[in-house]
Specification:
The complex is a heterodimer of chains A (318) and B (349). By secondary structure, chain A is α+β, with helices and mostly antiparallel strands. Chain A is 27% helix and 31% strand. Chain A has helices at 46-53, 76-86, 102-112, 117-130, 146-157, 176-189, 281-285, 306-312, 314-317; strands at 4-15, 18-30, 35-39, 61-66, 69-70, 87-90, 164-168, 195-200, 211-214, 227-231, 236-238, 246-252, 255-260, 266-272, 277-278, 292-295, 299-305. A 6-stranded mixed beta barrel of chain B has the order 3-4-10-6-8-7. The two termini of chain B are 24 Å apart. Classes of the chains: A alpha+beta (318), B alpha+beta (349). Chain A binds chain B through residues 47, 50-51, 54, 56-57, 80-85, 88-89, 91-95, 97-100, 104, 107-109, 111-113, 117, 156, 159, 168-169, 172-173, and chain B through 1, 3-4, 7-8, 10-12, 257, 259-260, 263-264, 266-270, 273, 342-343, 345-349.
């Protein structure tokens, strides 16, 4: 019975030359047998977390431990074995091989691991029967509905009877009729000896989960009155990648907005003087800060919650 | 991964079929050229073997009986026939001429020999010339027995035919009596290009030199040496073209299957397994093309102006080359497939 422990997970990569940090200090503990939902909007880092759990992406910091195995320390053959035997992934958009039948798609990871053809076929047939596709074994993905393809993808993820099943947006390409079958199936997978982690933006999945982890930064924190803030030259107002719930209006002084580059440098995006505002997009759309704001001179700001800011700027925001 | 590769071949069968046909044409050209090369070597060996001499005696300092323009007295054969070690000696007149017939002129090789002596034709139909005014023609000339033809203004009646007696890029050979040949080449003077012997003379007159059959073959091969080298060079180019066709098809297939490869890697498939699948696909394409090419070459070969030899060795060599071509071609796609980031599998549709 393996538990999943994620500690201080931080992922950085280059995006269009800029340093992106979609996951910053993410922590999670999941006991065996649970179904966990990573819920959030696009770009909040939930797929990135799944990639790290799957042993596909190496984090900049933090650890992932599954049972006795420190996943983030695995390399080479050990990593291949982990991907092959410990974890099963249900990819977004199914990612079935179009030239293979349903049975052959499920057999593929088994055959790649050296399982004999006969044994692989038997296992595939059993899994497809388990997901309710006993009569669709020889059908190619193009001849299956979205829900059926998703069930084939789930059967493929279960090929090696993994202890950790990861599903990325499993309902993204399904209509409401197909969703029901897939949800029931995912729920049934979480049981003794197995953890299921599902990344989704679909609210309908929440009742299924033993635990829901909200990945989207809190768009608007608790309401509070506008607050005056003072900064020294060089003092950081917020960092790129931070969650953000306030909009800032420059009362006095000057603020520079810079974006961190992948090579460690910075790019100056703009300088904000008295009467201008910045930082509204993160709280408005539930995104992380896409740049760093830093005082250039002794600066005085007024910080607003997004609701207060909108109320005071009806002419601009409607 | 071989199952995945086989299914992909089926899935994209039209494209692969086009690749097989294109590669088969290239391989067929390669096989035909190899056949031409083998045919040239073989016809040289055959014409020397037809004469069946142990030694060929030519004027000292000349290159060989088929390439010399220096004649020797034909009666040297009588003197040589009495030398120790020689059981028989006969003169041969060998030259190049044209044969006139209703359809026009035809280049021919002429061998004049002493009827009943060495150098006679391997008659397949009819009989050998027994007197002047008769000839045996290579079957490629298509002359029926009884037809009278004109060589150098001399009428000669076809009394027999012989198979596969050609040299100099398939030039057909006619066999005449030595008297007719001397009449054509030397205005009747009793001269010859060579004296051929059965048995090996223990001593050779100072004015002559003895050549072994192997030396005669080498001499006869020399004019076609550049042609053969060109054929071999073009063959290598054709193999490269075939590799290029296979490589481009496999690479294109890899580009279209990047997400599949990402999924395979994400689910624990090793790089060697990916390569195995790609190599299998390329080798299957290549070897299938080679097999098709073998059939195609056999269909096209009779249309060539000289006899091509499509030997089993050449076919086996082509299959081996196809194997190598396939493996090399798959390396192009391998680099791309192995470099695929498995994280690509997590991308949306």
């Amino acid at each position: 019975m393996s538990d999943l422990t994620v500690s201080g997970l931080t992922v950085e990569y280059s995006s269009g030359g800029y340093a992106a940090r979609p996951v910053d200090g993410f922590t999670l503990d999941v006991p065996s047998g649970r179904l966990v939902l990573l819920r959030g909007a696009s770009g909040c880092g939930k797929t990135t977390v799944l990639s790290v759990l799957a042993g596909i992406l190496t984090p900049a910091a933090g650890t992932v431990r599954f049972g006795d195995v420190e996943v983030t320390a695995l390399k080479g053959h050990a990593l291949t074995q982990y991907r092959r035997h410990t974890v099963g992934v249900v990819f977004q958009a199914f990612n079935l091989v179009p030239s293979l039948s349903a049975s052959e798609n499920v057999q593929a990871p088994l055959r790649a691991a050296g399982t004999r053809p006969g044994a692989a076929r038997q296992r595939a047939e059993a899994l497809l029967a388990q997901v309710g596709l006993a009569d669709r074994m020889s059908h190619r993905p193009g001849d299956l509905s979205g829900g059926q393809q998703q069930r084939v993808a789930i059967a493929r993820a279960l090929a090696h009877d993994p202890q950790l099943v990861l599903a990325d947006e499993p309902t993204a390409h399904l209509d409401y009729i197909q969703v029901e079958g897939v949800l029931r199936l995912l729920r049934s997978l979480a049981g003794p000896g197995r953890i299921v982690v599902v990344a989704t933006h679909d609210e309908r999945l929440s009742p299924l989960a033993d635990r829901v982890v909200e990945m989207t930064p809190m768009a608007a924190g608790e309401e509070r009155p506008p607050e005056g803030l003072a900064y020294r030259p060089g003092q950081v107002i917020f960092e790129q990648g931070d969650e953000g719930d306030l909009v800032y209006v420059v009362e006095d002084g000057e603020v520079e907005i810079v974006r961190r580059l992948a090579d460690g440098g910075e790019e100056l995006l703009s300088r904000m003087g008295p009467g201008t505002y910045f930082g509204e997009l993160a709280p408005l759309f539930g995104l992380r800060r896409s740049a760093t704001a830093r005082a250039v001179a002794p600066t005085t700001l007024t910080a607003y919650t997004i609701r207060t800011f909108r109320e005071r700027n009806q002419d601009v925001w409607g | 991964m071989w199952l995945v590769s086989l299914r992909d071949l089926q899935w994209r069968r039209r494209r692969f079929l086009i690749a097989v046909v294109a590669t088969a044409l290239v391989f067929a050209m390669s096989l035909l050229m190899a056949g031409a090369d083998a045919g040239l070597t073989s016809e040289t060996r055959r014409i020397v073997d037809v004469v069946g001499a142990d030694r060929w005696l030519v004027a000292r300092g000349t290159s060989g009986p088929f390439t010399t323009v220096t004649a020797i007295p034909a009666d040297a054969a009588d003197q040589l026939g009495r030398l120790p070690g020689v059981r028989r000696a006969d003169p041969l007149v060998i030259f190049h001429s044209t044969l006139r017939r209703a359809s026009g002129l035809k280049d021919v090789n002429v061998i004049g020999y002493r009827p009943g002596g060495l150098g006679g034709p391997p008659v397949s139909t009819g009989r050998a010339p027994a007197a002047t005014g008769e000839l045996v023609a290579d079957t490629r000339l298509g002359l029926p027995i009884g037809r009278t033809v004109d060589i150098g203004g001399r009428p000669l009646r076809v009394v027999g035919t012989a198979d596969g007696v050609t040299y100099y890029f398939g030039g057909p050979t006619v066999f005449l009596s030595i008297a007719d040949a001397q009449g054509l080449a030397f205005r009747g003077q009793p001269l010859a290009m060579t004296v051929v012997t059965k048995g090996v003379p223990q001593a050779v007159p100072a004015a002559l030199q003895a050549m072994t059959p192997a030396q005669v073959r080498t001499d006869l091969d020399r004019p076609s040496k550049n042609g053969k080298a060109t054929i071999q060079f073009l063959n290598v180019l054709l193999w490269l073209v075939a590799a290029g066709i296979i490589a481009s098809i496999v690479y294109l297939s890899v580009l279209e299957r990047l997400r599949d490869f990402a999924v395979f890697k994400a689910t624990g498939a090793s790089s060697s397994a990916l390569y195995g699948g790609l190599a299998l696909q390329a080798v299957l394409l290549s070897v299938t093309a080679a097999l098709v090419a073998t059939g195609l070459a056999h269909v096209l070969a009779p249309g060539f102006p000289f006899a091509l030899e499509l030997t089993a060795v050449a076919v086996l060599r082509l299959l081996l080359i196809a194997l190598v071509v396939g493996l090399v071609a798959s390396l192009v796609g391998l680099r791309r497939a192995v470099a695929v980031d498995p994280a690509l599998a997590f991308g949306g549709g």
